[in-house]
């Protein structure tokens, strides 16, 4: 992992924050899996981001001045893709397949991000390394889908996890566009959370929300909800934007590859899930493919990072 070796003193804090962020994100799959015993996916999603939105208002109660209708639309798209669609599909996937499967599959998001960046942000066209890495990762995903313990996996869950990765890629591109327009990470994240909550409203009447009192009174449930809402949402969405600004998009994105490793280890320790040889091989192939592909996106990353540097002075609004 030469991309993250021997960091300059000024970047060391950014690397530490990135590492802490992905560790928290890796454990979220386990926390959500535990909550699914008492809550529906929509209930978890609503409570999580409502807590996160309120926390961001408490930290920064200043209103965000949106510069144009186009920017307002971008905030809405970010809320829909990065909050409503991504986490709804991820939470539903966790009801259908193993947490370790979901954790590895959603790590394909950097692939989709690179493709969308090439198409919409003017990045370099993915080369041979990128395509070789992508092929290895897709092969790994196939092994994971076929290698669940006790043959009790559901391909629908794995497909939903893959669609969640695509939704996160869309979110990443939109957030990058918003950063180029000079919006600060904290107030922008709060705006995105707001639109994410608004986009959930149409499905609430059909989601069977009940919020059973006995479930809400359990301390373990509230511990998981606070972890998801305050830590994994309000804190980590802001710290990840900080990491991208401090390290650049290319170096920061490398840490995403550690998320499935954290998830698999946590699944074994907390949920007592078993790792079959086929799932283990698939995980190794997926992570190797992601690392190989990263070697092939250097020019695209440098070009995008140069654009970010040009607009960074405007990004402290």
Short description:
The chain contains 14 helices and no strands. By secondary structure, it is mainly alpha-helical.
Which SSEs are present, and which pair or pack?
Layout: H1 9-35, H2 41-59, H3 69-96, H4 99-105, H5 109-120, H6 128-146, H7 155-180, H8 185-200, H9 213-216, H10 219-247, H11 249-254, H12 259-271, H13 277-295, H14 298-312
* Range of strand content: under 5%
Helical proportion, percent range:
over 70%
How much is the radius of gyration in Å? Answer: 19 Å
Give me the strand/helix succession.
HHHHHHHHHHHHHH
Shape: globular
Mean pLDDT: 79
Query: What is the makeup of the main sheet?
Result: none
Please indicate the count of domains: 1
Distance between the termini: 34 Å
Total number of helices: 14
What is the SS-derived class?
mainly alpha
Low-confidence stretches: 1-6, 308-317
How many strand segments?
0
Descriptive overview:
There is one protein chain. The protein has 317 residues and is an all-alpha fold. It has one domain (8-312). It is 76% helix and 0% strand. The protein has helices spanning 9-35, 41-59, 69-96, 99-105, 109-120, 128-146, 155-180, 185-200, 213-216, 219-247, 249-254, 259-271, 277-295, 298-312. α1 (9-35) packs across α12, α2 (41-59) packs antiparallel against α8 and α5 crosses α7 (155-180).
